[in-house]
Write a structure and sequence with these properties.
Blueprint: H1 19-28, H2 31-53, H3 58-63, H4 90-126, H5 128-142, H6 146-156, H7 161-171, H8 174-187, H9 191-198, H10 203-211, H11 216-239, H12 251-260, H13 267-294
Helix pairs in contact: 1-13, 2-4, 2-13, 4-5, 4-7, 4-8, 4-11, 4-12, 6-7, 8-11, 9-10, 11-12, 11-13, 12-13
């Protein structure tokens, strides 16, 4: 009786999983994050193509003040969100204000990102006394009242969007520097970095090609959480009359104008406030979704 030949198990090779693809899979299953992303993309699209959607040009309205009845709501179906006290269409100003607020937020965040990533990476890579001194400087700057510092900058120097970008970005980089420093301290002792170092790679090449690309997850997450903070700070400065200046419009400036007329024309406060609140909520949902996607709990 011939023994039954044992079947050899066949090797099964599973394709490697792309970390970015896995993060996107987790992100798209996060309902609040996807809802926030859809709202942000839709609102940004409306802000970008707004001049072609409304029959009231932003600059034309500023040149011909009073062309419409001031302080009306839904006049003859033409002004969907009403007009302000000078007869300008609120929908047109809201779309323009949203575009400007997002521009300030993204530009200031990029400034913050550049300073924070550069400073944190250099501090962690140098290590020792240089790292200690650089991080004590960060601790010292944390103790300064940066909102007051920003207001002083806007009062002393000429008010402009460029100064607003630089001023807000220059005070929002501290936490980014700490996050990047922590990531670089962990990664610079890894085997792949040591192998690249043994091949004679320069420090700049090691940081740019090996360390920072592997730190992009936390950097992206915190960047999305920085944008709503910058928008809130810009709205606060514009609310005080020190940020975006009339006849330009931002969400903070529109809210400021709405507060002064909330009793006679409540829609001037309601619509900009709702747009601003939903934008901040959506950005926080997206940031939380990215954090969970790049750092899964399971």
């Amino acid at each position: 009786m011939n023994p039954v030949a044992e079947e050899k198990p066949t090797a099964v090779f599973l394709p490697g999983r792309n970390p970015m693809a896995e993060a996107w899979r987790r992100f798209r299953h996060n309902i609040p994050a996807m809802a926030g992303l859809i709202f942000l993309l839709g609102f940004l699209l409306l802000c970008l193509i707004g001049p072609w959607l409304t029959p009231f040009g932003f600059e034309e309205q500023n040149r011909s003040l009073g062309a419409a009845s001031p302080g009306t709501m839904g006049e003859a179906g033409r002004h969907w969100l009403g007009t302000d006290r000078l007869g300008r269409d609120l929908l047109t100003r809201l779309l323009h204000g949203g575009r400007l607020s997002f521009l300030v937020a993204v530009a200031a965040t990029m400034v913050s990102l550049f300073i924070g990533v550069t400073y944190g990476a250099i501090a962690a890579w140098c290590g020792g006394k240089r790292d200690a001194v650089m991080m004590r400087i960060v601790d010292l700057l944390y103790a300064l009242p940066f909102t007051v510092f920003l207001i002083l900058l806007m009062v002393i120097f000429e008010r402009s969007l460029l100064l607003l970008f630089i001023a807000i970005g220059a005070i929002e980089w501290l936490t980014m520097a700490r996050i990047v420093r922590g990531q670089v301290l962990v990664l610079k002792t890894r085997a792949f970095v040591e192998a690249a170092r043994s091949l004679g790679r320069r420090s700049s090449a090691l940081i740019l090609r090996h360390v920072l690309p592997n730190s992009m997850g936390p950097i992206i997450v915190y960047t999305t959480l920085t944008i709503p903070n910058v928008m809130l700070l810009e709205a606060f400065v514009s609310f005080l009359g020190l940020g975006v200046q009339a006849p330009q419009a931002s969400l903070g400036l529109l809210i400021n104008e709405g507060v002064s007329a909330m009793e006679s024309a409540p829609w001037l406060l309601f619509f900009p406030s709702v747009a601003f609140a939903l934008s901040l909520l959506s950005l926080n949902f997206v940031g939380d979704g990215l954090r969970d996607a790049f750092n899964p709990k399971e």
